[in-house]
Amino acid sequence: MKLVPEKVGAWLLGTGPDSEFVISTRVRFARNLAEVPFSPRMKPADGELVVETVRWALADSGYLNQGQLFTDGMLSEPDGFYFVERHLASPDFITQKNRKGLYVSDDETISLMVNEEDHIRFQALASGFDFATAFSKASALDEKLEGQLSYAFSPELGFLTACPTNVGTAMRASVLLHLPALVLTREIEKVLRGAYAIGLLVRGIYGEGSETRGNLFQVSNRKTLGQSEAEIIEVLTSTCRQIIDYEHKARQFLMHNLRVEVEDKVFRSLGLLRGARIISSEEATNLLATVRLGVALGIINELKIAEVSQLLVLVRPANLQAILGEKMDAAERDERRATFIRQKLVR
Q1: What is the Cα–Cα distance from 144 to 59, expressed in whole angstroms?
Q2: Which domain covers residue 326, as residue numbers?
């Protein structure tokens, strides 16, 4: 697999259910090898062993024919943040210095980190609100690996992990929601408090420790012990379905009561994106998110949801540099980003 920066993952194509509200659905599993010390006690030779063991398992199961395993060189800063911006790796994984590997499928719906907090962390991404597809893909990979690797497992506790909060199913499921109407109607805090109250986590666009930009929120399970995978997904599905319903009603309220103000906000955002000569990553994200709302509401007809969602990734610093094929400082990126966006949005 050769990197093609302007080609985005299938999960960003906007083909899944409720794509006007949900960017993507993710299911992630953490696993550790029974015969190797966990990450806090690993030695360099242990890290090398895990990488090579996982490489062998991926090759033997046929997954290396459907993707590529990247190793240390391509995963160092700042180049490695290309994968973070595409939701294929965590920031902590890229910044750590130990031996590591990252498997990415050709369509970018599956990725696997080797030697992050756990020996193996792999995920499946699906477009829109689609736990069935994400869980099916993640479980299929889990089954293949489990047939070749000896996992650290306790009959009483379940899968053992480096952090006790992941013990049990060791599964994190999440939904990346776009909730601009709830933010504009100032209902977002009440909705998110409700999610917290039933044991869910709400984070920014890139997960733990990331900022909330563009009115994008990642909702995921907190508990992994004492619940089955099906129960975790059931709670998340029910809660996110309610949140989507609240967002839908908030959008209806805005269009019925504040249509002119919303249209003004949307067209101003589109105008800035089409006319700006300098634009930061943060400003571009916020403006694109407003335009995305405008497309979803039918205010803007010449763009598609998928186009705008993809730009949210492509204009990020590492991806922009990969697309343009050159290293740039922040000022140069802001100028080239503005040009890139104009080329994509001017009709």
Answers
A1: 11
A2: 258-345
